[in-house]
Amino acid sequence: MVERPEQEETLERRLILATQAGLPIVPRPYAQVAAELGVSEAVVMERLQAMLASGRIRRIALVPNHYRLGYVANGMSVWDIPDACIREVGQAMGRMPAVSHCYHRPRHGKDWPYNLFAMVHGHHRAEVEQRVAEMARQLGERQRGYDILFSTRILKKTGMRFGAA
Amino acid sequence: MDELDRKIINRLQRGFPLCERPFLQEAGQLGCSESELMTRLQCMLDDGLATRFGPLYHAERLGGALCLCAMAVPKERFDIVAEQVNALPEVAHNYEREHRLNMWFVLATEKPEQLDAVVATIEQATGLKVWKMPKLEEFYVGLYLEA
What we know:
Chain A is an alpha+beta fold. Helices cover 37% and strands 24% of the residues of chain A. In chain B, α2 packs across α3 (34-47). Chain B starts with a helix and ends in a 6-residue tail after the last strand. β3 of chain A pairs antiparallel with β6 (137-141) of chain B.
């Protein structure tokens, strides 16, 4: 990784702190952030662009509340996949249209035998259950068991907050 | 939620431009005025139809750490424990789920070494075991929900 000057690190961190809770909804949002930071609008836009390009920002976007859009069935499907084929199955599962996030995570002994997590959203539980059953059918012997943990409440959804400590 | 709200949600969850007048540019594509778009967006955020609007930072690529955690919380203490957990700024989101492990939250810390301290704080405050479920590999993240 290329070392960046200390001054730039500081600007980037200040930019994160200024925008992690959201962009101001004004005609020139980047200019307002720039004014708060005491830099030019162009500097803010360039820095955000660089962070998008490097993946330090996933995207600049609106995050809808999926419950309010009618996606009330939010199922975290968890799978016991033989270690030998975890990557192959994870990649295959990630390509399935019903899946929005897919991660390999550690098992916790007999209490928690599941090592692959795939989020499946739907308008009804039956829809999610049907999709997960179809995924299980497609995996055949490459899965040794699964469960679906439906969410019943969003308790918090603020996203990352740096600089709090 | 009307047709314009749907169009706004569907369009802006994919991305928002980096230019001097981004709302003006998007309004042109959506067929409404800049001020109408800003008003609608503010309403969605105030009303809870949308939870965030802005740069979505990637904690790990910024040098920080993320960890999914789960807890088995006794029903009668659930709301109190939820308050204790949510009070920590490192808790990015938290969901109640139907399972013996009924509370699932994501910790995001600015430095990886801070994770264990936050976990210890939660265990101490609640007296409950925190099950750490860090990601070992990510296969796909592409959430898009049509309104």
